[in-house]
Automatic annotation (TrEMBL):
Gene3D superfamilies: PPM-type phosphatase domain (3.60.40.10). Residues 53-266 form the PPM-type phosphatase domain. This is PPM-type phosphatase domain-containing protein. It comes from marine sediment metagenome. Keywords: Hydrolase.
Length: 266
């Protein structure tokens, strides 16, 4: 009887192991399916085409991580359709939740921007601040909607939103706690567009400021998320901010040449 009892326990243990293994495999399948959904959400909200204003070159590179994050970028025409909205952002969380929150922020920015920069808005008639007021309204409305409607989620995003007038080279912007985009020219770093307010969604009615930078012929504006500086090679070494700045301090004939160099180093 002892033998049967022992054999019975062994069989039960084996059955339980099989059951546990099956549950683990199912959990992996669910996790992979969630990752696929998150990636589809993320890629579906990225622009299919980039604007091509006369005399300007716009290039981008997006590499999705295995673990879905909330990094995204956007470009869209505004007002009298001569100016361009530029957005780059990084949602605080990971996974499907981050992808959904990214989609929400992207949609809010677009909707409020289209509303505030109406079809009759003429940037060159609003001198000297051009797009300052509608730009500020767009960020405030986006922030307050998230802070007041989704505060329990604890989600927020660092975000840079700029409006470029291609004719003058003037870029009005608000940096909501994001990695500073960097203006470079003549083989040196000219200016870092540092934060002018907190991340979007942290609290209602924070103070944001609009700043302005003038891009001259040959200048390049480089914007990125922290996934660049946090990238690791096969040896586990980080790319680092210092290495990025060293590259940006070199001379590049075009935005595409700069992008190609960074992709090689990554």
């Amino acid at each position: 009887m002892m033998g049967f009892a022992l054999i019975s326990i062994q069989i039960a243990s084996a059955v339980e192991n099989v059951r546990t293994l099956a549950e683990t495999e199912r959990a992996k399948e669910v996790a992979e399916r969630d990752l696929d959904i998150g990636r589809q959400i993320q890629s579906g909200f990225l622009p299919n085409t980039l604007p091509s204003p006369s005399g300007w070159e716009i290039v981008m590179h997006f590499k999705a991580a295995r673990q879905v994050a909330g990094d995204f970028y956007d470009f869209f025409k505004l007002g009298n359709r001569e100016c361009i909205g530029i957005v780059i952002a990084d949602v605080c969380d990971k996974g499907v939740g981050a992808a959904l929150f990214m989609a929400l922020i992207r949609s809010l920015i677009r909707a409020f921007a289209m509303q505030n920069f109406g079809p009759r808005h003429n940037f060159r008639e609003t001198s000297p601040n051009r797009s300052a007021a509608p730009l500020l309204d767009t960020i405030k409305q986006t922030n307050n909607y998230i802070a007041e409607t989704h505060s329990e989620s604890g989600m927020f995003a660092t975000l840079f939103f700029g409006v470029l007038d291609p004719e003058s080279g003037v870029l009005n912007y608000i940096n909501c706690g994001h990695e500073p985009p960097i203006a470079i020219g003549q083989g040196k770093i000219k200016e870092m567009l540092k934060p002018t307010g907190p991340a979007v969604g942290l609290m209602p009615n924070p103070e944001y400021k609009v700043q302005e930078v003038s891009l001259q012929p040959g200048d390049i504006l480089f914007a990125f998320t922290d996934g660049v500086t946090d990238a690791q090679n096969e040896a586990g070494e980080f790319f680092t901010k210092a290495r990025l700045l060293a590259i940006l301090a070199s001379h590049f004939d075009s935005a595409e040449a700069l992008m190609d160099r960074i992709k090689i180093d990554l």
